[in-house]
Amino acid sequence: MNTWMRLMANDGSIVFGRIENGYLHEYEGLDQPVPTGAVLSLRTLTPLAPCAPGKVIALWNNFHALAAKLEKPVPAHPLFLLKPAESVIGSGEPILRPAHYAGKIAFEGELGIVIGKRCRNVSVEEAEASIFGYTIVNDVTAAGVLNENPHFPQWCRAKGFDTFCCIGPTIISGFDWNSARVVTRLDGVERQNYPIADMVFTPAQQVSLISQDLTLEPGDVIACGTSLGVGSIGDGATVEITIDGIGTLSNTLAATRAGTQAVAAVVGAA
């Protein structure tokens, strides 16, 4: 297995590479995994989300246990929505409550698939070879927005706010997802602990089937869906999602709203 991260240098430039013994061995990029020869100390770098997806495909009803609890049939094709690139943040970055929204905000701990090669109408075998590696995703939702309009469930809006897709802290290539578990803790209290092997569609099946609907590009992420234990995040609370072998993704819901923070930033800069 190899560990990959994306980080910011002191001059503001962004570097990507393989982590080994406290150093980053720089590569051209996720889509061009060719070493540049540069070796940088992690002490001089600031971690970011480990990839910059053009889109995040988030699955719904992809675990047998949750489907049984919801009394929903297992789907024949992945059911998904899209989260925009602007929703992505890394581990340690704050989740911002949307301006003018005081309702429930929910967490969902999930495995994330990181695409390494362009995929369009690929077979399961080709899909397997197109997976760069795996990461962790917190698929955040403004639950009150979802059914705000009785005529149109607002999945993309409820899940697409800025900072509502936490990804990280690393990408692991060669990861054995089949024997791993997702463990989610809210302020240190365990809320989710489920086996990834309970997925309806395997990662390769997800990539293959979704590629029949839309083109997947290098760096895109598929959030594999969640299982039992989804809950709400209070302002100031911290969600930690752990998958052994990948690490822990940790994010705190900021006590102030996004609009308030933006105003404060403008005032502070004046």
TrEMBL record:
<dbReference type="InterPro" id="IPR036663">
    <property type="entry name" value="Fumarylacetoacetase_C_sf"/>
</dbReference>
<feature type="domain" description="Fumarylacetoacetase-like C-terminal">
    <location>
        <begin position="55"/>
        <end position="253"/>
    </location>
</feature>
<protein>
    <submittedName>
        <fullName>2-hydroxyhepta-2,4-diene-1,7-dioate isomerase</fullName>
    </submittedName>
</protein>
<dbReference type="GO" id="GO:0016853">
    <property type="term" value="F:isomerase activity"/>
</dbReference>
<dbReference type="InterPro" id="IPR011234">
    <property type="entry name" value="Fumarylacetoacetase-like_C"/>
</dbReference>
<keyword id="KW-0413">Isomerase</keyword>
<keyword id="KW-0479">Metal-binding</keyword>
<dbReference type="GO" id="GO:0046872">
    <property type="term" value="F:metal ion binding"/>
</dbReference>
<dbReference type="GO" id="GO:0018773">
    <property type="term" value="F:acetylpyruvate hydrolase activity"/>
</dbReference>
<dbReference type="Pfam" id="PF01557">
    <property type="entry name" value="FAA_hydrolase"/>
</dbReference>
